[in-house]
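Q: Got a minute? One more chain.
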Amino acid sequence: MAACFQLKPVLRPLQTLNPAAAPRRSPHVLLRRCRAAPGVRCSSAAPPRRSYSVTILPGDGIGPEVVSVARDVLSLAGSLEGIEFRFREMPVGGAALDAVGVPLPEETLSVAKASDAVLLGAIGGYKWDNYEKNLKPETGLLQLRAGLGVFANLRPATVLPQLVDSSTLKKEVAEGVDLMVVRELTGGIYFGKPRGFGTNENGEDIGFNTEVYSASEVDRIARIAFEIARKRHGKLCSVDKANVLEASILWRRRVTMIATEFPDVDLSHMYVDNASMQLIRNPKQFDTILTNNIFGDILSDEASMLTGSIGMLPSASLPASGPGLFEPIHGSAPDIAGQDKANPLATVLSAALLLRYGLGEESAARRIENAVLETLNRGFRTGDIFSSGMTLVGCERMGEEVLKSVDSQKPAVAIS
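A: Always. Here it is, folded:
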């Protein structure tokens, strides 16, 4: 797991299996094409010194397309840093439903838990919308998170200088935005009990859910957020609703207590309604945001729209020990699946997070992030981030250009 949290992964050799239903290229096709292309040097790869196992979960829709690109980028960046990857590809979500009748096969979870990190594409699609809840593709994702024990969700939202005009905000507001949302992932109202349906004293139907947090749940996510803030710019804003919710009162109390362990980090508190407004009004005031499950679900999606395209945003979900889960925040986009229209950069950047937080390989992570920036500097854009004067490319071509940038490593400012 993440080196910054001093967590040790389990190593086990893996093999390759590809049951994904969606059309896709054979493994490493982009890598072979890029290395055969004129102007791409291949002699710089260092001999492998470190070896990691990575479980690949392509999933549904555009998932196989974007994961194929990210896998090739991960392989090349790793080889240039003396890292060898052992990949094993497994079904999850709708692809698993079609193959074996369940959204998360036992073998998939077993392989994922035995690896050093897990890279996921996307889950779901119209095809499975009418399935029972326990058989929906999204249920497989929830089961995967639970099986891996992930509890901390990290979502960076950075407005890249190359894409500032794509932001929904005015340029002067969006320029320079670089924040990280740390969301507690396994507690709160999404999992609290009692929950369900019933009737009240008047015979009316009611639905009810319960917001519950324990001190230990708050403490562990707070420590991760403080560690991340310490490595960024030393500012942490904890978002709650402590003026009306008892669970938020406990949240604020525990976060304030944990802050004494991190005197070098500046802690502030903000109510969630104000935070949602401030993210639009003045997003540059934030560096690292810590919040609970439901507030984080909402605020991280809001923050994602500051950047101009959900197709650029990665995420990481981390456990106390064992492999983390790394995935783009976009969905499976079944309407463009198999058409070479998907933006693979969110998944590529998720691979960078995998290196940084999953394996502690900072240099390789920076190499990938620099390559993404260099590719954008050279004017290549998929349709979701296209603007006049740029070169419109598809998923496969974007992957090839990123591979060229990884290999050439022209100077660029890394994403924080």
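A: Confidence is low (pLDDT under 50) at residues 1-45, 410-414.
Q: Perfect, thanks.
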